[in-house]
Amino acid sequence: MSHQFESGFFVHTPAWHRLGKVLDNPPSTQQAIIDAGLDWQVLKQPIYRRDANTFLEVSTHKALVRSTDQRQLGVVSNHYNPLQNVDAFKWFDILLHEGEVTLDAAGSLKDGKRIWILAKINLHPIEIQDGDAIQPYLLLHNSHDGSTAIWLHFTPVRVVCWNTLTWATAKRYEDEKNHKALHIRHNSNINEKLNLAHQALDLARQTLKSSIVEYRAMANKSITTELFEMYLSNIFEMEEPSNHKAYELIQENFEAGRGNKGSTLWDAYNGFTEWLDHQRGKNEYSRLESAWFGESARLRTKAHNAALALL
Q1: How confident is the model at residue 238 (pLDDT cuts 50, 70, 90)?
Q2: Where are the domains of the chain?
């Protein structure tokens, strides 16, 4: 298994995957880029093809290369404009200056091919039920291999266990249709569109309001053993969810997982996402990649939609 997590930092508390550097205080953008291991540039370099005994430059595409070690990140068209890491961090400066957010985490995955920056929105944690709260965040994630655009989203984190409830990347296209996310292509005027900092924050607050309503409805919905099994059956698309290899783990999370009591749809939802974030996969590296960009991200969206269907 390749090393998916390359570098990163987290403020105060290590992330659930226990990777990266832990900082005592939120950093400035200038310090954050160093602590995240992202103080490098993406360079566009020519590509050559061999023709008989000579090499000819390919006129339509360029290679993206990391400045520090010359690692090739991807191959893109000539119209592609990389968003440099320093510019991604600078996007948060206006919100940091106004006290709207503080930087909470950032880092690199897949040898620099994917980067993310997570900023805590400066609101008090919002209780879903007594003793169980979520903290709102604003996420910027980007690719340096040409595989994705630049995305800005809201994402809520369950305070009791640093559990990403509906990780933004899992439902980004749906959120964009509902005007809850921003999507910027690499062949457009990136810097001009990144000036929409306040719009992204307003979108995050709008999404937070609707999410709170959904989560509190889940917490108020009592659930029986039959409903719990129906919930898992809808996620896994199988008549007997007890036959799934993860059934016992998810059931244990539902009944006695972090912050759960085995009595509500909220417990079932978080029991399932606890399995995704903390238990599914062979190791921390594969779990992290899957939870943010892979199969676990898809399952998280299904779990969210299946819970709403039972309300």
Answers
A1: very high
A2: 5-39+82-209, 217-309
